[in-house]
Amino acid sequence: DMSNPRASVLIVDDDPQLLRLLSLRLTKEGYAVTEAASGEQALAQLALAQPQLVITDLRMSGMDGMALFDAISQTRPGLPVIILTAHGTIPDAVAATRRGVFGYLTKPFEARDLMHEVERALALSLASRVPAADDNAWRSHIITRSPLMDGILSEARLVADGDASVLISGESGTGKELLARAIHEISPRRARPMIAINCGAIPEQLLESELFGHVKGAFTGAARDHKGLFRAADGGTLFLDEIGDMPLPLQVKLLRVLQERQVRPIGSTQSATVDVRIVSATHRDLEQEIAAGRFREDLYYRLNVVSFTLPPLSERREDIPLLASHFLAQQAPKYRKEINGFAPEGMELLVSAAWPGNVRQLLNIVEKTVALCTTSVIPAALVQRALQRQGEDLASLDDAKKGFERDYLVRLLKITEGNVTQAARLAKRNRSEFYSLLHRHQLDPALFKSARD
Question: Confidence class of residue 88 from pLDDT cuts 50, 70 and 90?
């Protein structure tokens, strides 16, 4: 997918004629090309050209192609490298792909084969266009080169300066807490704590005392004073995860604290003033919850001064190679393994998988493959197995519903060969409802037209 028509490619060859030929071919196809006549020169140009792909000859005087690849993996791990080899060096080429080289072509090669390799490499290119690291420490936990995510982060940066409450929506596992942390990290409150609590994971009675504190003897088991998270986060940020699961009686108390900027511990007659910024998160549709009477509208407007919706992983697939390599680098040392990367076919499987559990599920899959891997590159078969296995671990109810819904829609579209009117009738839904279901699962009926199995 050439969504970036001017993808930049660095080509390296000590044969001037071949270099020229390669350069002409790639330029004609719309790539921005940088040439280097030696491995040493290529390294010098790497920082300047910021390429998304390197194509190098294997046999060169001075630094050869493999030495260049090793040097590149030191400074830009994940930047794909394609190696050009003469006929006699096939065994070297096989060894090279084991070490993580993206691919190799034997000379003389067809222009078509070259272009196919280039497009495949760029589609999975990990050469993230990450901006310079200087002032990006605040967002360094969010691994992305998705325009969607970049847009959200630019807005988050502006919002962080003030004290407005922020509501982050998104499916489970999309990184809502990471965004909350990033906002805290670049806000004027960064020197004070950010404290996170999951409102859905704690029983009501406990949640109240966790948030607002209690005095000794306020209830059975209250053996000493507990100041509560609001006061612990004073001057900083309080992150309320799964706010949509907060019981109604507590919603009333939370609203009061936000209005009065004062918190009264359970069993106390004294209120304490608090200064916290509230960032909350939910995977539920809060407007639906309000309509159903499960969430207070006045609290919603208080929390939702600024809102962000994080895209599911399936809408930022260009981040999958980036995230997978990042998780691999984290997990491999944990299992004391030397793993250089994923086999290209393995990476393709990851890029095209469904990911109902989003980034968190991707981390799980990478960890599983690392745990089972016995080679220096994770083979496609291992990825396939981990992805199939995933269904056997119990999915959350939401994920299971979504998975079922998607499979069901695919079956209907197959049966009706992409006829939406017929499919909607079978599903007992009107057409517009059915279209929005298809849209939610990113299914295109046209793909099923007379695709007779």
Answer: low
